[in-house]
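To the wet lab folks,

You asked to see what we're planning to order before we commit. Fair enough. Below is the target structure as tokens, and below that is the sequence we designed to fit it. If anything looks off to you, flag it before the synthesis order goes out.
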């Protein structure tokens, strides 16, 4: 099923040739399960930890809007060594599943 969705997206993109927008088969795009899509909020290029409004740099930066939007948040790391902070909001059981999968993924690599 995932292959079918990927193929539909690929075909829709291929329908856009030479920068000219041609008719896209809307039915293929609408068949994509939107619950599988996600969005990203923020960017490490914003360098939020370098922001200083007169009382010093922030200790922690969080994007609260991801609670309602379901997006991931991205920001630079406070220590400034080029790292990346990723924020995600999940229900408790989803957080436990995510933590388990993340830890096992780290062990593999």
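Sequence we intend to order:
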């Amino acid at each position: 099923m995932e292959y079918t969705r990927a193929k539909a997206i690929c075909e829709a993109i291929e329908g856009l040739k030479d920068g000219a927008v041609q008719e896209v088969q809307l039915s293929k795009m609408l068949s994509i399960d939107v619950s599988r899509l996600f969005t990203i909020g923020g960017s490490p290029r914003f360098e939020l930890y370098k922001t200083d409004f007169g009382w010093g740099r922030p200790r922690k930066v969080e994007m609260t809007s991801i609670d309602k939007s379901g997006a991931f948040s991205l920001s630079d790391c406070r220590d400034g060594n080029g790292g990346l902070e990723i924020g995600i909001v999940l229900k408790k059981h989803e957080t436990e599943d995510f933590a388990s999968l993340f830890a096992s993924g780290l062990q593999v690599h």
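Structural context that might help your review: The chain has two domains: 1-34, 38-109. Residues 19-24 have pLDDT under 50 and may be disordered.

Thanks,
Computational group
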